[in-house]
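Friendly challenge for the regulars: who can give me the structure tokens for this chain first? No prize, just bragging rights.
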Amino acid sequence: MVSLGMNVLQHGAEEEKSELARMSSFIGAIAIGDLIKSTLGPKGMDKILQSGDASKTIQVTNDGATILRAIGVDNPAAKVLVDLSKVQDDEVGDGTTSVTVLACELLRGAEELIGKKIHPQTIIAGWRQATDEARRALRDSAIDNGNDPEKFKQDLINIAKTTLSSKILTEQRDYFAELSVDAVLRLKGSGNLDAIQIIKKLGGGLRDSYLDEGFLLDKKIGVNQPKRVENAQILIANTSMDADKIKVFGARVKVDAVSKVAELEVAEKEKMKDKVAKIIKHNCNVFINRQLIYNYPEQLFADAGVMAIEHADFEGVERLALVTGSEIVSTFDNPENVKLGYCKLIEEVMIGEDKLLKFSGVALGQACTIVLRGATQQILDESERSLHDALCVLSQTVKETRTVYGAGCSEMLMANAVTNLAAKTPGKEAVAMEAYAKALRQLPTIIADNAGYDSAQLISELRAAHTEGKTTMGLDMENGEVNDVAQLGITESFQVKRQVVLSAAEAAEMILRVDDIIKAAPRQRAPDHCM
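First reply, four minutes later:
Bragging rights claimed.
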């Protein structure tokens, strides 16, 4: 039957087929990798991200997930890599740039192979064998000091230093590594990072940051209320404590005399007085509300000797409920069913020029607060992102205690293992395996390039060292040479490195499978029929 070339798609829809679709995918994915690869490694560069709204706010960062989240992409394959970095950030907290760059390099190699008429399914078959071999090599090289507390703590400190070495905190990485390890070890293996709060306060320098036990709430105490409470019984609520006016849009109350308005105000006050009385019946001496507390109920709380704190943001209320062991309530008719929070002491503390509330001796003893100081808001924001990455990696390492060496050591180890497998494999899959090994070697190559060193010389030396069996050799970016990373203490989490390899291979495979891109027709605006 002769094909008539009939278009079955809706008017306005677009379709890219076979080679054109594949080329579009490769171009989009490689463009994303090229965009962020200059941020990789300890000497990576930063990007300035400026928002498109009227405020024109800026972010200065080298965090892969933050950069990719901020840019708008239209290419479907590029969106896959953006989502890949988000998943890496959510799963393990670090390696967001590495996973995107590795997927990009795999696709760059696949583009060359397809140019040589090798079928995508053959490339994928070779990649799968290469991924299994890379995982095996990584697993065999992993070190587990989980049963030795002293060595394991040193591993955690080294991992934190390695994570922070590519961030804004690199100059103070020793100090912040100790600080983040102390915070994570307080969790006693629970991995619940909600118990660690980060507060940012302008002023001072990064070195003025510190770890504080307990919980800090960035709010002030109400007027004429106790400024210090010991053995606090805390009721946390999300309820309206303003005047109970009619809150229906467009509603009106009509009265025929001014005295009626006074009666309404008295009724409102009585209603609020009853609500405050119900709250006080809970035998609490601290009341924290997510919403506003107006002057009248605030005065009633002060008369009863209850500390009232208003407008605590939702995240603060949720975290406070967690650390004090309380529940967030909205109704107050059954005091016997409400679980109050507890802490030994609530007091005001000064940080810089601001007053904050400090909750000491909370029910959840793991809780702590990291107070970050810095000269500008951009420095504080980037420091928070850097510290969050370190905390996520450390909490994952506490659960999965195996570690591997960084600085390109693990990548070269996996690349050599895959190259050896390719040499033993007959068929075209071996060519795909060699391309996979080349993509792995590109990571240390990019790290060296970003530092301004001769990457060709360094990578050839590193490859020769690994071939000779010196499997702890990696890149020393401080001196621009190949060195023993075991002695340098450049350690990474096994979990992060494994996730980078698996996620990058799966994302690249999914993009390589595409042979058709269909874009839906834009939705048409319905015509206006009103005259």
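The radius of gyration is 29 Å. The mean pLDDT is 81. Your move, everyone else.
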